[in-house]
């Protein structure tokens, strides 16, 4: 009788332990999923542009020399705003695929150069950026969906629909452009400073902030990314490049601090000898960083100095900037406008000729 009671007691304890263990595991899973959602919403939320942001403006003189037409199109449920330049040109249309949080003015220097070389250019604010709708930029794969939406729009625009389409992308836009190399509407692609895997890139940046916990959280980041993007989530650029139907140029800076070599599309495909894929490593000093590849070296050097000073001041003072520091940052931002438009004609000429080769 005593033996039976002992067995029943042990069985009861075992059930309680199993129940507690199950509840703990489920709680941890739920907490991780919620944490992933919180991380996504925090990292990808719509960002307010500060008065000392290093961005370009569209001046009155530029409006006279480079007139543009405003347009809008839907990407999912969000209305995106953009501009088309050089509509008088009939060579082809280049879609500018922006980097993370960059807007329609993020590559004005290249836009003006391409327009001068006979191209029509479409630049737009992505989801959650500038004048476009959206409370956030959603995730690293969103620009891919926005570019697809831009191509859908082009086919409905009578002035643009007959033009061959080319993609010129940077960073997240470089990833987007590379993953669309097999789209039948695309004639050629130039991808600059792009990452191969959005999931690996998120894991890399998570590890910088939370260390080994990034590995614990990674499966749930994957899960939430798939929830956000469905079949468009987690695609590697090299999955598409390995069977590229159209010419692709992959460009990487040797000192890229934002998308380091190990994350880059360049690293993933430089030794693969993919058909139709050309890899270019830019190692010229000052031009070999994440956002200076298309600039002249002298202007790139000055921009890097301005950015370094800005980062140092923000790290030191946060948002409580002394008046003299804030004035200096605003003055630097004004000076940066011209530097950002001081493009490297040798590099962009190479890009233009690369595109032209597909329409000869």
Sheet with most strands: strand arrangement = 1-2-4-3-5-6-7-8
Task: Give the class from helix and strand content and strand pairing.
Answer: alpha/beta
> What share of residues are in beta strands?
5-15%
General shape: globular
Assembly state of the chains shown = single chain
How does this structure look, described?
About 45% of the residues lie in helices and about 15% in strands. An 8-stranded mixed sheet has the order 1-2-4-3-5-6-7-8, with helices on both faces. Helix 4 (about 140-155) crosses helix 5 (about 170-180). Strand 3 (about 95), helix 3 (about 110-115) and strand 4 form a beta-alpha-beta unit. By secondary structure, the protein is of the alpha/beta class.
Summarize this structure as a short list of keywords or feature phrases.
alpha/beta
Concise account of the structure shown:
By secondary structure, the protein is of the alpha/beta class. The protein contains twelve helices and eight strands. The protein has an eight-stranded mixed β-sheet with strand order 1-2-4-3-5-6-7-8, with helices on both faces.
Topology of this protein?
Elements: H1 2-43, H2 60-65, E1 68-75, E2 78-85, E3 93-97, H3 108-116, E4 120-124, H4 142-154, E5 165-170, H5 172-179, E6 186-192, H6 198-210, H7 213-229, H8 237-241, E7 248-253, H9 265-269, E8 277-282, H10 297-317, H11 323-340, H12 345-356
Parallel strand pairs: 3-4, 3-5, 5-6, 6-7, 7-8
Antiparallel strand pairs: 1-2, 2-4
Helix pairs in contact: 1-7, 4-5, 6-7, 10-11
């Amino acid at each position: 009788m005593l033996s039976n009671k002992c067995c029943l007691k042990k069985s009861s304890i075992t059930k309680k332990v199993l129940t507690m263990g199950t509840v703990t595991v489920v709680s941890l899973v739920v907490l991780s999923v919620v944490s992933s959602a919180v991380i996504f919403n925090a990292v990808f939320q719509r960002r307010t542009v500060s008065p000392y942001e290093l961005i370009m403006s569209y001046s009155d003189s530029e409006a006279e020399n480079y007139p543009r037409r405003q347009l809008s199109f839907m990407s999912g449920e969000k209305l995106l705003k953009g501009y088309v330049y050089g509509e008088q040109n009939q060579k082809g249309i280049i879609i500018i695929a922006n980097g993370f949080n960059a807007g329609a003015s993020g590559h004005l220097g290249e836009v003006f150069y391409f327009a001068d070389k006979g191209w029509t250019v479409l630049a737009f604010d992505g989801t959650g950026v500038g004048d476009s709708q959206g409370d956030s930029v959603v995730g690293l794969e969103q620009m891919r969906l926005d570019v697809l939406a831009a191509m859908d729009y082009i086919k409905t625009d009578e002035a643009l629909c007959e033009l061959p389409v080319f993609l010129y992308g940077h960073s997240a836009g470089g990833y987007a452009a590379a993953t669309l190399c097999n789209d039948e509407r695309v004639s050629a692609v130039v991808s600059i400073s792009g990452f191969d895997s959005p999931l690996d890139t998120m894991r890399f940046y998570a590890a910088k902030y939370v260390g080994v916990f990034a590995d614990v959280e990674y499966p749930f980041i994957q899960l939430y990314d798939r929830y956000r993007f469905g079949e468009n989530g987690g695609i590697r650029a090299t999955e598409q490049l390995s069977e590229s139907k159209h010419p692709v140029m992959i460009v990487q800076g040797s000192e890229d601090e934002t998308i380091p070599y190990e994350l880059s599309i360049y690293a993933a495909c430089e030794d693969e000898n993919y058909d139709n894929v050309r890899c270019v490593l830019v190692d010229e000093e000052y031009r070999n960083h994440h956002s200076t590849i298309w600039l002249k070296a002298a202007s790139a050097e000055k921009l890097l100095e301005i950015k370094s000073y800005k980062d140092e001041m923000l790290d030191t003072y946060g948002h409580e900037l002394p008046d003299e520091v804030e004035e200096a940052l605003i003055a630097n931002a004004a000076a940066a406008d011209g530097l950002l438009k001081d493009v490297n004609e040798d590099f962009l000429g190479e890009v233009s000729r690369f595109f032209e080769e597909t329409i000869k």
